Structures are given as C-alpha cells and as structure tokens.
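Late entry, written up from scratch paper. The run itself happened at the end of the previous shift, but nothing got recorded in the book at the time, so transcribing now.
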Amino acid sequence: MVLYLVMDAYHGDVESLLLKNLEMKNREKIIEYMASAVKYMHGEGYAHLDLKPKNILYRGSLGEGDLDIGIADFGLAKELHGEPEAVQSMSTLRGTSPYNSDPRKVYNKEFDIWSFGLIVYQILKTGAKTMTATELCAAVQKRKDKPDDTESFEDLNRGTELDFARMFLSCTIVDKEQHRCNADEIVSVFYS
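Output as recorded:
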C-alpha cells in the first residue's frame, strides 16, 4: 500500500515577503488575510501556539489581488475543549521566542493573538528587512515594562499605520484584567 500526502502549494512565507520593500497597502492586505486565517482557525476550535512569520504561508501575488494566506506547522496546536478554552497541560511550550513570550502564560487563543500582534508590529516596523530576534525581543520587553507606551509608533503615518499600531497594542495587552482583542474583533477592523 502506498500512502500519499496531498497539500496545497504555497509560494513562500510572510517572512520572505518582509524582505521586499512593501507598500503600506500591501502590508495591510497581508495583515487582513492573516487575521482572517487566524479567525478561521480559532472558529474551528484550535489554538496554533506557534504563530510566526515563517508559519504563515502565501500564494498568489499582492499586485494582482489574488493573494491567499495559509497557516502551517500545527505541531504545537491544540484543540480547545470547553471554557475557558485554555490548554492546561502544557508545562513548557517549545515554540519560537519571542513569539511565545506572552506574559499571561495561558495557552489558548489569546496566546495566538499575542503572537499575531508581534507579527503586525514586525510588518509595521520593517521596511526592506526583517527584524532580528534581538530587536523583536527588545520590543516585547518594552511592551511588558511599559504597557501603556505608544511612543514606539511616533514615526508612523496617521491613518492605516496608526490603526495597525493600535491593533498591535490591543493584541499585546499584558494586564490579565484588561480585555485582549480576539480574532473576530481584529477582522472587523477590515470590514466595518
């Protein structure tokens, strides 16, 4: 008996797209489609727990409007059962730092939202280069140390870029008492 594994073909990952000097409208499309993919995954009852630019794949082209985004590498993913939809059994998560550095340490959909927020930050703050792990870790530490800080975004243009900065801030809320946005709320930004 021969077993075949059939998968969709993708052209590359979001990390490789970040190496291109993308216009803001293209960055916006990437974020929009990523948000839709995360919303779908969460709607199916799964938490990925290792979202990062290398695990978000694309096919099609930005310029022609046929871009498609998919999420790969479900090695750490967990199916969530019941409320509060937290995976309690993970004593140590082996994911990619800094994307797995959520200070809340609750392994559920919120964990993915933290990672999504960091990817949004990376898309906003990189032009023709990807951020190093050290740069991203410094941004994460600053976010943990100063949860209300917005000065990191003073160099952004008003409008879309500032809206995405706010998205980053609401995805990476540190205080457990405050509401961290969910995938539905993120997607609604694009369709309201």
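The domain at 12-80+95-190 is CATH 1.10.510.10 (Transferase(Phosphotransferase); domain 1).
(Scratch paper discarded after transcription.)
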